């Protein structure tokens, strides 16, 4: 059993990492930043979360809840890392020692990654062996959370815990005309990609032993941004079109969660591409979602992008060699009905 801190545990990826880590028997502490009672809405009612800057779904702030979570208020419990730090020094650094509350049976603590002291306090109290950094600004233009936040997590983890940092194919312009390897330097062309590139640079400089995982569109459990967007487009709740010339290698959220945990327990240092096996366009991916979920494919409109990163395919050859986790392609995992 390993002590694992998972940042962004209320996010679409983070909660699946939490679920997997708990199922594997690890001692888990998840972090969030918004009040949990604000985020505890049923998944089915949650609006589309912003993803990597796709223009047609930049609509509303999203609400999420951990699987099986119940709405709960933590007002009468310690709610900040500083609160956690104020516990007696002789108190054992158990999960509960750092947690402000539990949600869905998972210990959770509020921790703003823009605040390095708060991050240090949580890590100092919980004393994780592994930190999986899956938090990023919900507003994808939130540089302090996405870039500075990653630096803060790396600074607090270095020398204390093994760090696995989640990065993105959005660090690239998509103009290379070939798959990107781990050796390619970022050449971002929009703010979110620049923030993720800055985050990588900071993490690698501060903690060279960290694993930096470049991934692609994340979906598969019905809660991914692209799945929500496809539903909204098919239902006419959102007006827009899906790009035919933005090509990526989407990954199933549970494959990514498993890979991140496997990397956390391993020793891989540096950048690793962890994406799905199939390259598809945004439009093709929407069609796969629509077919799986019984939506009217004819209601999905296609378009070409203007100035967006185009060909963001990641070469996953190295990951396929070193990971036990199998990285399924979108055609395979979208063929299965939602569980
Ligand atoms: N979604 C994709 O398709 C995709 C693709 C490639 C890479 N990624 C990367 O994968 C990771 C997870 O993405 P996601 O889509 O699952 O994220 P998400 O659903 O947008 O969730 C973001 C998480 O970060 C937390 N957070 C936001 N601002 C914070 C702050 N200032 N301090 C502490 N926590 C903060 C949020 O907490 P609250 O719930 O409390 O707000 C939430 O738990 C991110 O690093 C993202 O850049 C995502």
Would you summarize the structure shown here?
The protein is an alpha/beta fold and 339 residues long. It has helices at residues 14-23, 36-39, 81-85, 95-98, 116-126, 143-157, 191-206, 225-235, 253-265, 282-293, 317-322, 330-333, and strands at 3-7, 27-32, 101-103, 106-110, 130-133, 162-168, 211-215, 218-219, 242-243, 247-248, 251-252, 270-273, 280-281, 302-303.
Q: In one word, what is the shape? A: globular
| Structural class label | alpha/beta
The count of strands amounts to: 14
Which percent range fits the helix content? 25-40%
User: What average pLDDT do the residues reach?
Assistant: 84
CATH superfamily: NAD(P)-binding Rossmann-like Domain
Main sheet strand line-up: 3-4-2-1-5-6-7-12
The biggest beta sheet reads: 8 strands, mixed
The number of helices is 12
CATH topology call: Rossmann fold
Blueprint (SSEs and pairs):
Layout: E1 3-7, H1 14-23, E2 27-32, H2 36-39, H3 81-85, H4 95-98, E3 101-103, E4 106-110, H5 116-126, E5 130-133, H6 143-157, E6 162-168, H7 191-206, E7 211-215, E8 218-219, H8 225-235, E9 242-243, E10 247-248, E11 251-252, H9 253-265, E12 270-273, E13 280-281, H10 282-293, E14 302-303, H11 317-322, H12 330-333
Helix pairs in contact: 1-9, 5-6, 6-7, 8-10
Bound molecules: NADP nicotinamide-adenine-dinucleotide phosphate.
């Amino acid at each position: 059993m390993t002590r694992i801190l998972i940042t962004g545990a209320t996010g679409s990826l983070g909660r699946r990492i939490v679920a997997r880590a708990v199922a594997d028997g690890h001692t888990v502490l998840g972090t969030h930043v918004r009040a949990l009672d604000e985020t505890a809405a049923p998944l089915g009612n949650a609006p589309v979360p912003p993803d990597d800057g796709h223009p047609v779904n930049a609509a509303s702030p999203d609400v999420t809840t951990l699987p099986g979570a119940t709405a709960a208020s933590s007002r009468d419990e310690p709610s900040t890392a500083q609160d956690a730090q104020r516990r007696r020094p002789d108190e054992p650094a158990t999960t509960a020692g750092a947690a402000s509350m539990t949600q869905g049976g998972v210990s959770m603590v509020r921790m703003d990654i823009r605040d390095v002291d708060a991050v240090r306090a949580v890590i100092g109290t919980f004393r994780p062996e592994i930190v999986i950094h899956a938090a990023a600004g919900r507003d994808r233009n939130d540089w302090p959370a996405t870039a500075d936040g990653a630096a803060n997590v790396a600074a607090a983890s270095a020398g204390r815990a093994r760090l696995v940092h989640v990065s993105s194919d959005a660090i690239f312009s998509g103009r290379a005309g070939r798959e990107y390897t781990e050796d390619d330097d970022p050449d971002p062309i929009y703010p979110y990609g620049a923030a993720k590139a800055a985050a990588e640079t900071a993490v690698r400089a501060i903690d060279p032993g960290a694993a930096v995982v470049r991934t692609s569109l994340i979906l598969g459990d019905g809660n991914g941004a692209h799945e929500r967007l496809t539903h909204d487009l098919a239902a006419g709740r959102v007006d827009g079109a899906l790009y035919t010339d933005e090509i990526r290698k989407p990954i199933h959220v549970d494959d990514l969660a498993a890979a991140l945990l496997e990397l956390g327990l391993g020793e891989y240092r540096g950048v690793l591409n962890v994406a799905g096996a199939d390259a598809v366009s945004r439009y093709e991916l929407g069609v796969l979602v629509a077919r799986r979920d019984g939506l009217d494919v004819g209601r999905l409109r296609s378009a070409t992008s203007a100035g967006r990163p185009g060909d963001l395919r990641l070469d996953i050859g190295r990951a396929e060699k070193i990971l036990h986790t199998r990285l399924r392609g979108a055609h395979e995992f979208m063929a299965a009905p939602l569980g």
